[in-house]
Amino acid sequence: MTDDPLLSVRDLKTHFFTDAGVVQAVDGISFDVHEGEIVGLVGESGAGKSVASKSLLRLIHAPGEIVAGEIKYRDETIFAVEEGPDGEPVPREEMLSNEAVRRRIRGNEIAMIFQDPSESLNPVLTIGSQLKEFIELNTDYGGKAARERAIEMLHEVGIPDPADRYSDYPHQFSGGMRQRVLIAMALACEPNLIIADEPTTALDVTIEGQIIDLVKELQAEYGTSFLWVTHDMGVVAEICDRVNVMYLGQIVEHAEADDLFYETKHPYTEALLSSIPRPDQTTDSVEPIKGNVPSAVSPPSGCRFHTRCPDAREACVEVLPPIERFQGTNDPAVEQRASCLKHSDLGYWNSPPISNEARDASMAEEPQ
Amino acid sequence: MSTDADLTGERTGTHSTDDALLRVENLSKHFDTGSGMLSGLTARFRDEGPSVVRAVDDVSFEIAPGQTFGLVGESGCGKSTLARTILQLLRPTEGDVYFKGQNLAELGSDELRSLRQEMQIVFQDPQSSLNPRMKVGKIIEEPMEAHGMLDEDGREEKARTLLEKVGLDRSHYRRYPHEFSGGQRQRINLARALSVDPDLVVCDEPTSALDVSVQAQVLNVMEDLQEEFGLTYLFISHDLSVIRYICDRVAVMYVGQIVELADKQALFERPQHPYTQALLGAIPVPDTRSGEVRNIVEGEVPSPSDPPSGCRFRTRCPAVIPPDSFDGDDETWEATLAYLRAVKRRKIVDTEPDAVRDTFFDDVSVGSNAEITIDESIEHVAAEEWEEAAALLVEAFESQSICAREDPVRLYRTGENDHYVGCHLQAADSRPERR
User: Fold this and answer.
1) CB distance B184 to B211 below 8 Å
2) Who among A213, A237, A262 is closest to B286 (CB)?
3) pTM of structure
């Protein structure tokens, strides 16, 4: 992985300015997507994964705003700000205009697939006309050629009898078929990167399986990179090469998929993994993560997970854990990163444990 | 226990034990799609085939006291309709539901109302199932009031105690639902259901709207409550992992029918029905080293208003039984089946006869009788006459299979106790039990 990344995100912050205060939905995340990879962005609801993925294409609207950071796609700068004279964020010169992002990036370089296939299609236009319009807008295909291309894409994603189904309306398609149409739309312009925001969450398992297999096939064929946003660790294990775990607006761990499951470095990732019942074996107990996700308006000081972490100590309340780097065990070229004080020498081990729900529960279980 | 119940038990040949808390006998719920506002306009066309959605079709099972009975299936398979029909929130089209030996279908509305105290339901969506204008305490007390339980002080005390039991705080009594997270709201729903001391709690996807870490909290609370109050759960979910975690016995539904019914361990470790196998094979396992090879079934769930004849899974089943008239070997049958489905879905790109043969019948020797039909259909495909090609193949192969001719559901029973499999493949190694 010596090549330059396809997409590179540095210290991205997206905040929402609401009456109740500033919601720090995404608060300083950094990650890369290389060519031909499927990179996961995992977390529970409220972690900020969807906001993060929308920020990448500058699809954030008021009261939301990308307030800091840098998003680079190849040589293009999708977003970059620097601090102005009064500490105000000022866009850097090379940053693309809204118009340029829309024309040069969205659709033809980076495409997006959303969770709910019924909301992403216009119910009063035929499947074919929507696909054709999208192709005409984003590629050089026009008229008849665009129509042919649309039918070809429908076939590619496994829609039976695409020439006939071309003039069907979205309601005549099942949920799984509609999701296939959206994948066709995303692929039609042969983008280099597809951002998929929970693309299989609304689908049944057998259909989800079909879509995942389809994505794997298409990825092998076109070499498209994916940023796969999901809450489902099963899907992560199934398709992701590398994974970023988000908690309350921040990335707490980054690893190759296998290392994430077997060399888990962050207590949140660990807690998340042990809260999942398994389909392939009978588990005697699942361990819920104690407590609730704190508000993103006033997130906890220090490590944001300290209010629910069974390993939390006083140092965790005060010190924001730096990102520690580890060499990946499976693929030494992939570095694993986690931000937890346990892995640094900033006073964690000398500091007394704090009391929170998670710790109290684990103390109660231990024999005195 | 009424003699009535005993008789039906004998008649159906199911393992009817007199101590079942709930017994469902041949229950069906059909919806007439012509019964809406404009039905009068279309009524005269009824004879030409009214459109009936067979949401639940001839379902039988029973639940022992203290058991957690899982009902699993994909969306639209009829599991929620089944639950509502059992509770008589929807009147069954056919069949009986015995609760503690009493046939609910025969009860009048007053008797049913008082019996409802013993059967409660918890719904999927924790947002919309709590009245936002009512305080939590009142929400929990409402069912008690409706059933005339306790006096005001007694109800308040009970509500506060229940809040504690579900892992919330007694002081939450005076708060409003919006002050709680999704997981906490689902606990309030549980407290409300438990306020009238029910024996049976029907849980319709109670954790589907929750994050996994929160889901685990709710599942654990449910287990604790079951132990403390001796509850029986009918647990409906599309999530096999959750079912495997919490249930004792599991029924798998497909297009309105139960296709497999077994104890949890048997169902997950020795699934017999190809649909159960397909479901289990499709779930992504949260483990990069699980070593499970996924096997994804093709196609989509058929509509319950026009289910396939015979076995409803046969249109997607990888193990359709060849008709007696088929003279090829297993390999040839598989190739023929794959070809047939590709024709039906019009998924053949290169329709040149040789290309079609190469794609589907490479290295396969087709038996003489079958070959004539296949060759003929390949000609049609080459001419893009898809319907003709499909009709020919369906007539010669698909509709001849026993899977298309006879409904296998609950005809067969494996040697294993209490493990029912509605699949013709069972006929080979077990005595068919006809009802």
Assistant:
1) no
2) A237
3) 0.86
